[in-house]
Write a structure and sequence with these properties.
By secondary structure, the chain is mainly α. It is about 75% helix and about 0% strand. It has a single domain, classed as Arp2/3 complex 21 kDa subunit ARPC3 (Orthogonal Bundle). The longest helix has about 40 residues. It starts with 6 loop residues before the first helix and ends in a 6-residue tail after the last helix. The mean pLDDT is about 90.
Length: about 170
């Protein structure tokens, strides 16, 4: 079945992609401190897999163009971010419990970080063990910031998303 998007879906995807990109760039001076996992969990819960995946594609392309890394590095980034809606829309699809979602963020961060491990060991010929050791502090920072952001911001942002999506629905008469 072919999925159709209306103008409101396209606008919402554009705005949410912009928010995702801007927050990551605004926090880029801090290593792996970001709200990306929180926002992707929120988008996955509120929009579902397909729309969140489109947001991820837009984000990855923009991020790599802006950072000057447009190329093969996009593949592990795309795979890593795609694990977030996969995890949330499958394993955690029936929960809105903020504590369980914060635990889900640990799994999301770990899969994101591990997606780069494969790339760096296979393509760039790095030693896997050394790469994992070097990346561990950054992964732990990502996990910590994701847990805290989900615990603190998920419920308020969820209410905002509900308000926005309910207000933008045009009722057909």
């Amino acid at each position: 079945m072919r999925r159709k998007f209306n103008i409101l879906d396209i606008c919402l995807i554009s705005i949410l992609s912009t928010i995702l990109f801007v927050q990551e760039q605004a926090l880029s001076f801090l290593p792996n401190i970001q709200l990306t996992i929180l926002l992707l969990i929120l988008y996955s819960k509120k929009l579902g897999f397909v729309k969140t995946f489109i947001v991820i594609i837009i984000h990855v392309v923009l991020d790599n163009i802006f950072m000057g890394s447009f190329g093969p590095i996009m593949i592990p980034m795309l795979i890593g971010w795609t694990f977030v809606p996969i995890i949330i829309c499958t394993i955690f699809r029936k929960t809105n419990n903020v504590f369980l979602l914060s635990l889900a963020s640990i799994l999301c961060c770990t899969t994101y970080s591990l997606s780069f491990a494969g790339y760096t060991t296979i393509i760039m010929k790095y030693n896997l063990r050394l790469y994992l050791i070097a990346d561990l502090p950054f992964t732990l920072l990502l996990i910590g910031s994701s847990i805290l952001s989900v615990l603190i911001l998920y419920i308020p942002l969820s209410k905002v998303m509900d308000y926005i999506t309910n207000k933008t629905i045009i009722k057909e008469n």
